[in-house]
Structures are given as C-alpha cells and as structure tokens.
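chain below, 288 aa
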Amino acid sequence: MKHTLLKSFQKKASAFEEAYLASKGKPFFFDSDDMRTLHFDARFIQSAMRLSDPDELLLSYTRGMMIFLLFNPQPRSILMIGLGGGSLAKYCHRMFPDTNITVLEIDEDVIALREDFAVPPDSERFVVLHTDAKDYIATMEAKVDVILHDGFDANGLVPALNTTAFYTTCRAALSENGILVSNFWGDDEDLASSMERLWSAFDSRLWWSTATASLNRVVCALHGNQDAALSDLQKQAVVLDHLYKLGFEGLAERFQTGQGKTKAEFNTMSGTTPLSALMLVENGDTKK
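prediction:
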C-alpha cells in the first residue's frame, strides 16, 4: 500500500515538474484527479477548481471573501481585482444573476486560461478586462457596491495594489455604503503594514477574520458611516449559512474590528496572525 502511494506521488510530482518546465515562466494549470490548480511558478497554488464542480469555492479564503454578504446580501455591482482561476467570478456569476460583475486582470496570460477554468464568456452583465486595476479604478465614473481585492502575483500581493493611495482610490469608487474586501496573507509585519494603510483610507470602519484552516486574513473596509454590531453580524451569518453554506458562522465568530477602537488599540490587534498568537500562548507570553 505504501509503495503504491509513493509511486503515485512520484508520478504526480514528475508530471507537475514537466508542466512547470513547459510553461516557460507563464501561468499554467495542473490536473490531479478531480482537481485543477493554477500556478504562477512551482511554489504556490494560486487557485483551485474541482473539475466535477467548476463553480465551487474550493479554497477557504475565497469562501471567506464572500463575507461581504453579511453587510450587503444583494449587491447591484461587484468589481473584482485579479482573475486568477476565476473562482469568485464564477461563483458570483452563478449565484447573483442580477448583479453586474467586472473583473480586472493585468496579465493576459492569466486571461488566456479562462476557458480552462470554465470562466463564463463576456456578456452584458459579466466582463473580464485586460487592464491595470490601479489605473482603471482611478478613472472610474460609476460607483460599485463591492470591490473584491485579490491582486496577487507569484510573489504575493502586488505592491502597487497595497498602498494608502490605492485604498483611498478604492474608497472613492464605492457606492454610499460600499464595501472593499481585501485578501491578505503574510507574517505579522506584512499584515500590520497592510492594515495600517487600510485604516488610513477607511479609518476605524474595518472588520476582519481569518479564513477557515488558513493563514489568509479577509478584511472588510466599509465606506459608509454605518455602525455594525457583532451580534447582528453573527445572527446574519447563521441565516446566510443556510443559503450558501460557506462557513460564515465560523468567520463571524472570529471577527475583530477597528470600530470603537483607538488607533493604538487597533495597531495592537491588527498585526497579529493566528499562528503568532498561538506561539505566544504556548510560550506563556500572554496576559490573562
């Protein structure tokens, strides 16, 4: 049994290496059983799709980014930064037939793989644009209800899409009670810097949670002046989980917010990853 499993693993590893070398530095996909994954290099999985259910949100951070539904369950318009394997684009296209969806992707080689990941064709309410998100958002005339910010390249979140100026531009592009949802991944220092920039653009109107069984942090930045109550969000999470089954209850239980906090309190809270918090507990470096 172990010998068979080892041979299977070695065969898949060899096939992956062949696919990687054949890509010659371009984005590529790799199939393993019922799974198709998108890669920018040999290090990380950028997106994952179940071949038998292409619209499923397979990676937990994609399910986490749908948490904007707690604040706006019926968005009229969604702007997505980064296409990747199209997980969020496909899911939103299927689940929200009355919502206009625009996807911004700077890499034409990623867009070239859209059919391989079953991304719907462009239509009156769905379009994928080959453009720089920073420039596009700066010149937008129409406001949008939701911006999903997932602009990663092979090395992580694109620096130009992680500045105070960029987040300020995003806020200006949102409708009256619009929401920016950002996907962050990194160590304490990376998270603290990104959260600091979001605070500079949105003040204390930030809610964040960790994706299930993941080090990804999903942050909701609210444009309007509306206050949100944690208890109300948790109740809404129960209702929406019956509809979508995306694990909102767990996300809401882990919610933290800058609302009602001083800048110093926010700085203390926002730069700690679940992993580092666990290490502090194990080392006894916490205050009871």
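The chain has eleven helices and 13 strands. The two ends are 49 Å apart (CA to CA).
thats it, cya
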